Amino acid sequence: MSPVATDQVANVVSLVLLIALLLVATWTAVVVVPKDRRPTSALAWILLIYLVPVLGLLAFVLIGSPRLPASRRARQKEMDRRLADRAVAEGLAHEVAPGPAWLEGVARQNQNVGHLPLLRGNDAVIHVDYDGGIAAMAADIAGATRLVHVEFYILSLDAATEPFFTALEQALANGAEVRVLLDHIGSAGYPGYKATLARLEAAGIPYRLMLPVQPLKGRYQRPDLRNHRKLVVVDGLVGWAGSMNMIDRSYDKPKNIRKGLQWQDLMVRLRGPVVQELDAVFVTDWFSESDELLPVRSPVRPVDRDGVADEGELAIQVLPSGPGFETDNNLLMFNALFYAARSRVSITSPYFVPDESLLNAIVAMGLRGLDVELFVPEKADQFMVHHAQRSYFEVLLRSGVRIHLYPEPFVLHSKHVSIDDEVAVVGSSNLDIRSFELDLESSLLIQGRSFVDALRRVEDDYRALSRELTLAEWQYRPRRHRVLDNLLRLTSAVQ
User: Fold this and answer.
1) How confident is the model at residue 244 (pLDDT cuts 50, 70, 90)?
2) Confidence of residue 12 (pLDDT cuts 50, 70, 90)
3) What is the DSSP pairing of strand 267-271 with strand 119-127?
């Protein structure tokens, strides 16, 4: 075949391949992408696929589905059924104490989607001292005699967390059943990962990797679907939940250490029937990772040494959320709370990238004249999130929301909301699209004036350290920053 003929054949083949690529891209964009997806997310994917067809299609194949594998969704539904049946059999309806009339509806919504009720008779103590929180958790665990369940997005053995691992070994020596869950990708990215697994194995502590990405072992799902929960249950009587990962405050990264970065977190120590509800979340995740179905125990009221009921004054509800559920449970709750609020709302979220519904709810609060404030780190630890969240600041400022920038070298990593005078949410969930759609999260809905007062004192400390951002300052930021912020905002929609 002559060189000319060869070139003609090559051109025809290239044209056929190009047409095939465009047909596949069009089919994917028009038929596959929009199915059960928010319009903004669908448009973002369509734009990516048409602008860069090869990379766009490859990205869609890898991370285009926000759903867990069918087997995992089936286990979640099985646990949902068991929890719903338990609630009916034991009469575990939500127990709202006298307070805002709207709270009962929010609690009912949470129970309908998360299958765990709002229960009275709890105590909750806030811990903001990072190393002190590790020490307090270790002390509780070391005294365990029956059961210790530990679940962290990041679990890493280092000098700061050594007492925690020693406490796990002590609990095992006491005769307690000890089980540990750690997120595979979340933990594997840190220096102590191999040492962590070796320590658990040497101690004989059963553990499972959450959402493992191990295709050669037949375990795989979308790699960025992660289990972001942080919780500890001790003997079914004491629980811990909040935002802190079990790792040194610098996250053991050399660049963080050079910059002197220190994570600022908030954990809550719990006593009361809510502890068994927190354990139900662990039992669900353990079942998902091991196929071992542990008992889901009934909520118990604590008693003192004389056997007298020692009930706390707080009503607390655990709300699990994530891609194993049919709905975005945490997003539904936050929207309901923001539209119900009447006077004041304080929001703390290190990663603030809301979807349209949540942004509208927050803007509406400001326009209604509520006292609304947002605490975010002045410099987020993730480049893309840092710039994406900044793209929302102007609309918030214009609606009357006050924005407080928490200063370096601290990375404000706490995740909590206070609403009016006696309702709060504390947990692992950020107010961002990732936490709503891609991550497994756990939140505590807490009713009680004493707790909200304590949380407000934490917010007062944030405010005293932070710098308030003004609309005038924000409008005069460099144009290149505006372009970068708005460009990276688009990436948040590719879910």
Assistant:
1) very high
2) low
3) antiparallel
